[in-house]
């Protein structure tokens, strides 16, 4: 059985195109993963502890207590697959800034997060109820 030259040329071009496509795919995939990229991935975290930032606890004879409605928050993060795979709850810091808040009122500030580069919180940032009460030391 003999293959004519036109069919042989067409078959060889298809094989060459396939090999070239595989080489380009491997090359580009390597560049993306070395740059910390990759397809986006998601990860859920439960009960991340909320910390307080700012504000003085003592002012003269008065002591202020700060009460949080919730002391933990659940969140979903998004980032490159390679980075998300290594991410742990220890890499996430959740905090509420109480700078400038006055005692005797209730507030609902946004919970902020400190995350590694290329990682972001998915969805609207959560709110937490904060009450600042004044205690008089006599």
Looking at the structure, what is the overall shape? rod-shaped
Classify the secondary structure makeup into a structural class.
alpha+beta
Strand content: 35-45%
Rg to the nearest angstrom? Answer: 28 Å
Task: Provide the CATH topology of the largest domain.
Answer: RNA Polymerase Alpha Subunit, Chain A, domain 2
Could you tell me the mean pLDDT? 82
Element string (H = helix, E = strand): HEEEEHEEEEE
CATH class of the largest domain: Mainly Beta
Strand order of the largest sheet: 7-5-1-4-8
CATH architecture of the largest domain: Beta Complex
- Regions with little confidence, pLDDT below 50 for 5+ residues: none
Description:
The chain is an alpha+beta fold. Helices cover 26% and strands 37% of the residues. The chain contains two helices and nine strands. The protein has helices at residues 5-34, 81-86, and strands at 40-53, 58-59, 62-68, 72-80, 93-97, 106-107, 112-114, 120-121, 130-136. The strands form two sheets. The protein has a five-stranded mixed β-sheet. A four-stranded antiparallel β-sheet has the order 2-3-9-6, with no helix packed on it. Strand 2 (58-59) and strand 3 (62-68) form a beta hairpin. It is rod-shaped, with a radius of gyration of 28 Å.
Please specify the SSE layout and strand pairing.
Elements: H1 5-34, E1 40-53, E2 58-59, E3 62-68, E4 72-80, H2 81-86, E5 93-97, E6 106-107, E7 112-114, E8 120-121, E9 130-136
Parallel strand pairs: 1-5
Antiparallel strand pairs: 1-4, 2-3, 3-9, 4-8, 5-7, 6-9
């Amino acid at each position: 059985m003999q293959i004519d030259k036109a069919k042989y040329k067409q078959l060889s071009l298809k094989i060459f195109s396939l090999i070239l496509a595989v080489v380009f795919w491997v090359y580009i995939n390597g560049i993306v993963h070395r740059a910390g990229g990759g397809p986006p991935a998601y990860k859920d975290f439960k009960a991340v502890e909320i910390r307080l930032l700012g504000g003085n606890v003592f002012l003269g004879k008065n002591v202020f207590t700060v009460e949080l409605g919730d002391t933990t928050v659940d969140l979903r993060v998004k980032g490159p697959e390679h980075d998300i795979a290594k991410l742990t709850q220890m890499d996430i810091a959740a905090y509420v800034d109480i700078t400038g808040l006055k005692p005797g009122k209730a507030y609902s500030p946004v919970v902020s997060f400190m995350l590694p580069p290329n990682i972001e919180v998915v969805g609207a940032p959560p709110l937490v109820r904060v009450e600042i009460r004044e205690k008089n030391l006599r």
